[in-house]
Every structure is written in structure tokens, then in C-alpha cells.
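STRUCTURE REQUEST FORM
Protein name: Osmoprotectant transport system permease protein
Source organism: Franzmannia pantelleriensis
Requested output: C-alpha cells
Priority: standard
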Amino acid sequence: MSWLRRSSAPLAWALLLVTLMLLMPRLEEGFRLIAPDARTLIYQRDSFASLVANHLLVVGVASLCAILLGMGAAILVTRPWGRDFLPLVSQLASIGQTFPPVAVLALAVPVLGFGSVPTIVALVLYGLLPIVRNTLVGIQGISPGVMESAHGMGMSGRQILWQVELPLARPVILAGIRTSVTINIATAAIGSTIGARTLGDPIIAGIVNGNTAFILQGAILIALLALCVDSLFERLQ
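Status: completed
Returned output:
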């Protein structure tokens, strides 16, 4: 029964997200209680479905880039010929997350322009640390006896990586990817400040116009999207 509850959780959150997107215009009276002085209660500049889709696209592209870069760098520095670069890779990944995404956007806009591209760059930098850290922990945490056995069987370095190290480290690596993606789902909303179409649009519009209903609509959809993706990763783990 517990397995059934875990497997149905992503579907339940996804259904709730879709239902809320479709029924949002019918909730006007409910939002009137929150923002009684607002002239418009439901955000209408773009459909919520298109905002969710574009939000997912931005996060998906950024997460894929972060996974490839983060796992690739972590794997390289765990090889005998790349261990000298381990401190450098760890420091760069840490700097990427400690550097505010807003500052990254401010620096990237003059070079990359407005829209989704600088947002993706900021999300990639922000999402690297959990992936790099967990990939390192997963690979370095494999028992030396297992590695010796693999070498004793005559397996090549590539075979050991794909058939021993990555399968054994997979739960830890997935946990890092899960953290990275979930964080970026919330962080992607800042892309709306530079013209990217995300679920941050109603939040920014609500802040500018003093409309609490708009802010709440964007925040609820972002939260449901994060819960849906997080529960999916939980099922994968």
C-alpha cells in the first residue's frame, strides 16, 4: 500500500495542478476575499497553461545542462588523472550557488539580452552544487573492496564507471538532481524580471500593481509544480 501511495503521488499532484489551471477563472470570488480592491482578480495576460509549459521548459533545459556539466565534472575529478582538479571543481560549484541569481541575470543581460537564455544560465550555475556534491559523495562512497573486485575481474575503467560506480551511486546522485531541479523550479520565477515567460509573470505583475491575488496565483502554481516534480523524483529514487 505504501508503494501504491508513493507511485500515485506524482499523478495526484499533476491532476491538482491541471485542475487548478483550468478552474482558475472560476475562483474569482474566492480571490476577491484576498484582494477586494483589485480591479482584475485573475491574471489574463497569458494563459496559465502556457506559463506552466514555458516554466517547465526553462527549468528542464537548465537542469539538463546542470546535470551534464555537474556529473561530467564530478566524474572527471574522480578519475586518477583528474583528481588534482577536485578542489577547483568543488569551489566553482559552491561559488555558482552562493552567487545570487539576480546578480547573474544583471551580468548576463548585457551579453545575452533579455528572455530565457540568461535565466537558463543563472539556473545552471545555481543548480550545479547539489549535483556535483552528490555525484562526488556517491562515487567516493563506494567500498574499495567493490572496486578491487571489479579490477580483479578485468573490467576496464569505462566498464567500471558504467556498470559499477554509476549504478551504485545512483540513489545519491538522484537525490542531488532532485534538490537541484526543485530549487530551480522556484528560482526560475525571477526570469520574469528580464522578459522570460514563467510563472513569475503573475507574481511580478501582482507586486507592480499591488494585486495580492496575482501573487498568490503564481505562487500556488509554482508550489504545486515543485511538489509534482519532487514526488516524481521520490518515486524514481
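Reviewer notes: The CA atoms of residues 99 and 219 lie 24 Å apart. The mean pLDDT is 87.
Form closed.
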